[in-house]
Amino acid sequence: QDNSFEQFIINYCNEKLQQIFIELTLKEEQEEYIREGIEWTHIEYFNNAIICDLIENNQTGILAMLDEECLRPGTVTDDTFLEKLNQVCATHQHFESRMSKCSRFLNDTTLPHSCFRIQHYAGKVMYQVEGFVDKNNDLLYRDLSQAMWKANHSLIKALFPEGNPAKINLKRPPTAGSQFKASVATLMKNLQTKNPNYIRCIKPNDIKAAHIFNNALVCHQIRYLGLLENVRVRRAGYAFRQAYEPCLERYKMLCKQTWPHWRGPARAGVEVLFNELEIPEEEFSFGRSKIFIRNPRTLFKLEELRKQRLEDLATLIEKIYRGWKCRTHFLLMKKSQIVIAAWYRRYA
């Protein structure tokens, strides 16, 4: 119920993860249809980039304001930090504070004077401003790290490399918020280079008990995880897509015209293949470089036909091999019989 700096940082990380989820699923999904020239009705979804900007903007973001308060001379308190937020972020549609002069929440009794509220992607969260400055300023001072580096114990010395006199940096050590922001940026950069798979966990109840299904709780989780928007985009679009070359290579055995070799463009081969299999036209679309299949059952049908065809081909290969082996054995026996008969007649 009481959210402070730690929960604020955790929720910031969750917002960034949600943002990359949107980028890699909803946005990328719809942009691919446009690139491939597929007829498509755009699905509206909420992009939480505006919330991430509220937190991490280098000039007007909450973390930037917090660092500015920690670094400026004079009396610095949590109240002065909140006052600065009220001045800079008061007009932001996802920021709420009762102390702001132009706030819409002056009479909101659910919002205490020493708090601010952010409307996250998952819903509104209220943060107690008490402790923000001290926790953000929780630094390992230079003299302490130098003392640890001078310790005789090798492990302690290895844990504080920044205390090495040869590596002394006269700059002020980064704040906790800055370090976390840099770590999140590194994580996002790493994830952008990957092809991640998402596993969404849904809690059926809050008491960790079996056989209890709380509909309201589950619906709330589905909503703030973005699953509804993802399902809408997926259902309106195509469940499977693949480049023409690997698609033809995988399923060419299902058509006499494409098996064993297709002489011509891969797209033309896929068109011949799908026409031969009599797949309904509404079940697929041809893009510039990929074939798009709308329903999973069509893909399952292709896989089932391929499985049956592989079994038939394996039976054919086995049949030919057995015939060759038996004929080879027969010819050897026949040759041996002729040799034995010739020698028998010779000495008979």
From TrEMBL:
GO CC annotations, alphabetized: brush border; cytoplasm; microvillus; myosin complex; plasma membrane
Matching SUPFAM superfamilies: P-loop containing nucleoside triphosphate hydrolases (SSF52540)
Residue segments, region Actin-binding: 184-206
Gene3D superfamilies: 1.20.5.190, 1.20.58.530, 6.20.240.20, Kinesin motor domain (3.40.850.10)
Keyword set, alphabetical order: Actin-binding, ATP-binding, Calmodulin-binding, Motor protein, Myosin, Nucleotide-binding, Repeat
GO biological process: actin filament organization; actin filament-based movement; endocytosis
Superkingdom of origin: Eukaryota
Residue ranges of domain Myosin motor in the record: 1-307
Alphabetical list of InterPro entries matching this protein: Kinesin_motor_dom_sf, Myosin_head_motor_dom-like, P-loop_NTPase
Family, per entry: Belongs to the TRAFAC class myosin-kinesin ATPase superfamily. Myosin family.
PANTHER family (alphabetical): MYOSIN (PTHR13140), UNCONVENTIONAL MYOSIN-IB (PTHR13140:SF277)
Protein name: MYO1B protein
